[in-house]
Amino acid sequence: DAKTTQPPSMDCAEGRAANLPCNHSTISGNEYVYWYRQIHSQGPQYIIHGLKNNETNEMASLIITEDRKSSTLILPHATLRDTAVYYCIVIGGGTSYGKLTFGQGTILTVHP
Amino acid sequence: DVKVTQSSRYLVKRTGEKVFLECVQDMDHENMFWYRQDPGLGLRLIYFSYDVKMKEKGDIPEGYSVSREKKERFSLILESASTNQTSMYLCASSVTVGTGRQPQHFGDGTRLSIL
After folding, report:
1. Are the C-beta atoms of A10 and A110 separated by less than 8 Å?
2. pLDDT of residue B48
3. A57-88 tens-digit pLDDT
C-alpha cells in the first residue's frame, strides 16, 4: 500500500472549515484513499473514502486531485468535538484483507 | 450505524493469567479484526477472521489466539499474559462487497494492563 504524508498538526477556529491535506504520490490505480480519526482514548472512527471521484457524506467531504497524488479532507463547520488525530491511509482494493496501518496522522485542534 | 462493542474499556490482569477479550458486532459483517495500538508503534494487526471458524494471523500473532464460533463475535485470547502485552486493544469489523475495499468500523478499545 502507498505511503502517505500529512502535516503533524493543524489548528482551526470553531465554525470554520478545516481542510486537512494528505500526499500519496505513489498511489496506484486500484488503491483507495481512506480517512479515519481518533479522539483521545477512543477507537478510530471511519470518516470517508474514495477512489478518484470527490466524495461527500454527513461528516465530511473528500477532494482527490485528478492525478490522485494528493487529497484533502474537509470538515465544513468544525466543532470542538472534531479535535482529534486524523489519519489518511491508502489501501489496495484487491488485497485479500484490508489491514489498516496508521501513520503519525495530523493532530487537529479546534479552538473556540 | 455500525456498532462494535468490546466487553471492557479497562482491564487489569496479572502476569501468567489467561485473558479473554470479547468483541461483538451487530451488522452481520463477514470480516473481523484484532489490533493493538501502542505509542510510537501505531496500529498493528494481531489476527483477523473472514468467516465463522476461519482465522488468519496478522503481523504480531505470537502470544495470542482467537476464536470465532459465531459470526457476530470475535474473541482474542492471551494465553499467558506478559507485561509486554500491556496495550490498547482494538476490535474492528467490515463487510465484504465484491472486490471493493469496505471500511473497517472499530470498537472503543480495551486498555489492558498486565502487572
Report:
1. no
2. 93
3. 999 999 999 999 999 999 999 999 999 999 99
State which residues of chain B have pLDDT below 70: 97-101
Burial (CB count within 10 angstroms: exposed 0-12, middle 13-18, buried 19+), residue A103: middle
**What is the distance between the alpha carbons of residues A96 and B36, in angstroms, rounded to a whole number?**
20
Q: What's the pLDDT at A40?
A: 87
Asked if B107 contacts B91 with a C-beta cutoff of 8 angstroms, the reply is yes
Return the closest-CA partner of residue B76 out of B87, A37, B26, B96.
B87
Across the A:B interface, residue pairs with CB atoms under 8 Å apart total 55
pLDDT of residue A95 exceeding 60: no
CB of B108 less than 8 A from some CB of A: yes
Separation of alpha carbons B29 and B17, rounded Å: 31
Could you give the CA distance from residue A52 to residue A50 in angstroms, rounded to a whole number? 6
Amino acid at B50: Y
Residue A90 phi/psi, 5° resolution? -120, 130
Q: Does A93 touch chain B (CB under 8 A)?
A: yes
User: Using CB atoms, which residue from B101, B105, B109 is nearest to A93?
Assistant: B101
Average pLDDT, whole number, for chain A? 91
In angstroms, the CA B102 to CA A2 distance is: 17
Separation in Å, CA of B17 to nearest CA in chain A = 25
